[in-house]
Fold Major facilitator superfamily (MFS) profile domain-containing protein.
Amino acid sequence: MRLASTEKDPAFNVDKEIALRVLTTQHERQQNAEISFLSCFRGTDLRRTLIVMGCYCITVLSGSTVRAYATYFFQQAGLDTEQSFNMSIGLYALGLLGLLGTWLLMPYFGRRTIFFWGQAVQTVLLLIVGGLGVAQRHASKSDSSLAWAIGLLLLLSSFVANLAISPILYALVSEIPSSLLRNKSVVLARFSYAVLNVVANVITPYQLNPSAWNWRASADLFWAGACLLGTVFTYFSVPEPKDRTIAELDLLFERGVSAREFADTEVSVRDIVDGAEKLE
């Protein structure tokens, strides 16, 4: 009862909720008797596993490693050491404000909606920063306005990432898998994230370092393209799990409902098992 939001739903019935969860688990066992890592890649669970893996990887594709190297990035963008450090502190402060802002957004907006628009805005910000980086190569070294513009936009991108991408990820990866395979799906998703993150952390210093690829701020053009890929993936593949029970999500995936139609498609838990009137 402590986990239930009785203020939002005064008619909440804990016995009915537990009965529904039991029936949902029985239904999932009928659909897939095995509970193994291989089961995550069979039937409808394959689609669900690929979605959570993609969602985890999107945090890297949205430029998380650039923000991780923020102080060095600011230096390569043209700010001095002291200002680069100060800007990095501001970046983490805005990231914290973004996380707090997520608490306000999630009760009113769907996870898919926030996740998608967060990436769309992030793509634009990274594209602008990358464009300014290109312009900076042809500008006078005494002109610091571009360096400050790049720095401020990177601060804004940190706010957007922590408001609408990173925290929403954890809701999606916990809600989209089936209840029986959730832990294994999350493990696979986290593994895919770790692999991609290793690659990103290897190439990012090469992108920023003047003695290597020397892309500097224009490296964000690369991450803008990566973030765009994540945005497209979200639009076509990531469904809306908000306000859906586990049973409803199971039915939607079993029927092959498009990710874009999840929020508007009506399903009934009566379709799961005969005699569902026991839940009344």
Observations:
- The CA atoms of residues 39 and 45 lie 7 Å apart.
- Residues 44-238 form a domain with the Growth Hormone; Chain: A; fold (CATH 1.20.1250.20).
